[in-house]
């Protein structure tokens, strides 16, 4: 059976840029475009030329090689001709290959927001589309508020779609602008439209957590153009997440056997890395529980699950993790059994027989430490160090003889009262003793700086080590509570790892996690063969 083609339209750089706290520079836009080209989407919507300096510069030259370079903007304003509308002209004169014009498909919005008649709205839509085609652009139309408009007045919403298609729009994209439409409504409404569904698209927002479901419902109903963003970013609750939609369409029965994408199996295997690289660019930690691409997407904790996974991965995995460039993760915890340990050890390049008595020792150590407050679910690096130490496979790179921190309130040279934090660390590397002193913006920062200040022959090995995140959790109430600290680190390779420390003293717990982070970095630098690709 011949598969139908689905077309992927990414709006990360336009709709995604409306996310609170996200601001793309020109270089950011160029970098994200490269990621999207690598992924293999069909359209890249880069923004709104003429609206701001960055977008105008971005559209001053063609930025894509494979994907259709697309500009976004409004249809002509009421009372102006197309030729006398600066917004429309900025679109037509840009280096974009396609223009996506947004217009209101809800007659109530046309009257209230635009102050024009529904008929004039359709006339302006037609004139704008015709101008885009005359300029040699592929024309798309975003039908804003389409689903709410259809529910209020199905005749006008349908007429809007028919008018856009008759004027020559390649795609008319049905927008769930408020994000409140249910999947069953999406499917029913799309099916009811008396037009060629193969020229329709879907643009869903995630205000009910159903943007992906709504997108898939629209595909089932006949649309063949899909809009979304990397990692689902977007205003309010976000947009439809292409990182979830793409693998679902490519791998799941009911979609994979009916449709094809411009993304082959090799490109699909890049999707996890692309998702995490994008989060790196945004300077935020990736969501561990994101479908397909999250670190926990193929993780299991219970021992009985791990045992079943070892025999047949499909018992607890709906798709093979390697299909999306992810990996199986069997977490270690108090619920762990030997199967968890063996799978996790193997993933880290450690081979040990299931009858090796050291395995029982390691399992006992894990459970004892978790009873004291440690958690290795999200601290894989600390588990690797514990395992190698128990198995006699951990080199002793350096030893901390002692450390001290102090916080002092004093007056500076301008007479202002300030807090000064200082840390002193004594480290022994082989027969050499090093003492480092550092000031920081707090005791943990000062300790981190002092600990890494001088490691003798290992100093150049940790030059690209960076502390990314620091989380503290109080395990028991009261001032004498046990504290668990989770430290997230990364290096120049882009790899992230997590280490954990536990103590009634928050400084001690933090220092333990910092120490293990550096040790893990040295282990993977000095013993690269122990870290399988």
UniProtKB/TrEMBL annotation:
- Known pathway: Amino-acid biosynthesis; L-isoleucine biosynthesis; 2-oxobutanoate from pyruvate: step 1/3
Q: What is its EC number?
A: 2.3.3.21
Q: Which reaction does it catalyse?
A: pyruvate + acetyl-CoA + H2O = (3R)-citramalate + CoA + H(+)
Q: Which GO MF terms does the UniProt record name?
A: (R)-citramalate synthase activity; 2-isopropylmalate synthase activity
Task: Identify one Pfam family in the record.
Answer: HMGL-like
Please give the PROSITE patterns that the UniProt record associates with this protein: AIPM_HOMOCIT_SYNTH_1, AIPM_HOMOCIT_SYNTH_2, PYR_CT
Q: Domain Pyruvate carboxyltransferase spans what residues?
A: 6-269
Q: Which InterPro entries does this entry report, sorted A to Z?
A: 2-isopropylmalate_synth_dimer (IPR013709), AIPM/Hcit_synth_CS (IPR002034), Aldolase_TIM (IPR013785), Citramal_synthase (IPR005675), LeuA/HCS_post-cat (IPR054691), LeuA_allosteric_dom_sf (IPR036230), PYR_CT (IPR000891)
GO biological process per UniProt: isoleucine biosynthetic process; L-leucine biosynthetic process
UniProt enzyme class: transferase
Swiss-Prot/TrEMBL keywords: Acyltransferase, Amino-acid biosynthesis, Branched-chain amino acid biosynthesis, Isoleucine biosynthesis, Transferase
Q: Coiled coil located at which positions?
A: none
Q: Which domain of life is it from?
A: Bacteria
The text of the family note is: Belongs to the alpha-IPM synthase/homocitrate synthase family.
List the protein's name.
Answer: Citramalate synthase
Q: What lineage is on file?
A: Bacteria, Pseudomonadati, Pseudomonadota, Alphaproteobacteria, Hyphomicrobiales
Q: Which gene encodes it?
A: cimA
């Amino acid at each position: 059976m011949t598969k139908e083609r689905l077309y992927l339209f990414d709006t990360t750089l336009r709709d995604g840029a409306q996310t609170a706290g996200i601001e793309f520079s020109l270089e950011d836009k160029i970098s994200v475009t490269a990621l999207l080209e690598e992924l293999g989407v069909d359209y890249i919507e880069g923004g709104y030329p003429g609206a701001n300096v960055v977008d105008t510069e971005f559209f001053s030259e063609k930025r894509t090689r494979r994907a259709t370079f697309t500009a976004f903007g409004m249809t002509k304003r009421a009372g102006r001709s197309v030729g006398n509308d600066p917004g429309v002209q900025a679109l037509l004169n840009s280096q974009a290959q396609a223009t996506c014009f947004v217009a209101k498909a809800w007659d109530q919005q046309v009257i209230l927001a635009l102050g024009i008649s529904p008929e004039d709205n359709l006339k302006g839509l037609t004139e704008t589309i015709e101008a885009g085609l005359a300029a040699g652009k592929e024309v798309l139309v975003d039908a804003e508020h389409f689903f709410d408009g259809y529910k209020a007045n199905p005749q006008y919403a349908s007429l809007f779609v028919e008018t856009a298609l008759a004027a020559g729009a390649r795609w008319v994209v049905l927008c769930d602008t408020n994000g409140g439409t249910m999947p069953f409504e999406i499917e029913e409404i799309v099916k009811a439209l008396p037009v060629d569904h193969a020229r329709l698209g879907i643009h869903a927002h995630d205000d009910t957590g159903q943007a992906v479901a709504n997108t898939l419902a629209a595909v089932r109903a006949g649309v063949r153009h899909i809009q979304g963003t990397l990692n689902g970013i977007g205003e309010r609750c976000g947009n439809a997440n292409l990182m979830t939609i793409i693998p679902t369409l490519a791998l799941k029965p009911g979609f994979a056997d009916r449709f094809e994408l411009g993304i082959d199996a090799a490109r699909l295997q890049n999707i996890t890395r692309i998702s995490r690289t994008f989060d790196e660019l945004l300077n935020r930690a990736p969501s561990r529980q994101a479908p397909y691409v999250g670190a926990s997407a193929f993780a299991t904790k219970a021992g009985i699950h791990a045992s079943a996974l070892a025999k047949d991965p499909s018992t607890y995995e709906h798709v093979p993790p390697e299909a999306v460039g992810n990996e199986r993760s069997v977490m270690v915890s108090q619920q762990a059994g030997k199967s968890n340990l063996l799978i996790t050890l193997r993933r880290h390049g450690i081979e040990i027989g299931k009858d090796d008595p050291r395995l029982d020792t390691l399992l006992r150590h894990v459970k004892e430490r978790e009873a004291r407050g440690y958690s290795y679910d999200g601290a894989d690096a600390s588990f690797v160090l514990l395992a190698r130490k128990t198995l006699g496979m951990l080199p002793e790179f350096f030893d901390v003889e002692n450390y001290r921190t102090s916080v002092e309130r004093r007056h500076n040279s301008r007479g202002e009262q300030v807090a000064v934090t200082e840390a002193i660390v004594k480290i022994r590397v082989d027969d050499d003793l090093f003492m480092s002193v550092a000031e920081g913006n707090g005791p943990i920062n000062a300790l981190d700086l002092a600990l890494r200040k001088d490691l003798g022959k290992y100093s150049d090995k940790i030059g690209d080590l960076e502390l990314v995140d620091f989380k503290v959790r109080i395990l028991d109430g009261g001032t004498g509570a046990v504290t668990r600290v989770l430290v997230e680190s990364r290096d120049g390779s882009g790899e992230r790892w997590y280490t954990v420390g536990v103590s009634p003293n928050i400084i001690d717990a933090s220092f333990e996690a910092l120490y293990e982070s550096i040790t893990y970095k040295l282990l993977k630098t000095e013993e690269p063969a122990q870290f399988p690709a």
